[in-house]
Amino acid sequence: MVYQGSNGVMQAELVALMRDVASRDETAFKRLYDRTSAKLFAVVRRIAVSEAAAEEALQEAWVRIWNHADRFDPAMASPITWMTTIARHAAIDAVRKGSERVSKTTVVIDEELAEKLPAPGSTADGLTGPQLRRCLEGLEPDRRGMVLLAYSYGYSREELSRRFDKPVATVKTILRRSLIALKECLGGR
After folding, report:
1. Which one of 33, 67, 99 terminates a domain?
2. Nearest to 124 by CA among 37, 53, 186, 61
3. Cα separation of 15 and 27, whole Å?
């Protein structure tokens, strides 16, 4: 069955390209890249912390697609679904690798995080970036680190538990108490 995908590429064409890529056809690989790279970049960009990390993850995804195209089975998934899964895993791997560059005990409010906070003078539900920064800086370094890693970088409680060498229940309590302290600092918003 042939259908038009969300990016306007015919599934039958993608299946044929995947078959050719599995045979190490570089021209087919370039055509596959041209037809799907924008969609795959959008997938990794939603996961990666920065555009540079997304580009690195996408490059890794394309290497994996090239190396494992012979494993693609059109009876199991559509080509775009198969490639999206690979891209998603590459992005998650890149985030995990990159996150190790963040200090284990102290997370500073860096430029990347500053971009996520409201701009000075602007309001987001009446909250300004400097207010939130001041409140975050009022937390103990470990607590601030946990909050930032959890809510800005997407760490799970289990990942924080391993990173800070504390039980999951303790991490949960620290996050909850830290959020209460932030709320109080921000005037009960």
Report:
1. 99
2. 186
3. 15
Helix axes 141-151, 168-185, angle to 10 degrees: 90
pTM: 0.50
Q: Which residue has the tokens 């078959």?
A: 19
User: How many domains is the chain built from?
Assistant: 2
- Residue 152: inside a domain: yes
Is the confidence at residue 94, as pLDDT, over 50? yes
Q: What is the CATH number of the domain that holds 130?
A: 1.10.10.10
CA separation, residue 40 to residues 86, 89, 91, 127, 142 (Å): 9, 11, 10, 35, 35
Domain of residue 28 covers 11-99
Residue identified by tokens 């997407």 is: 154
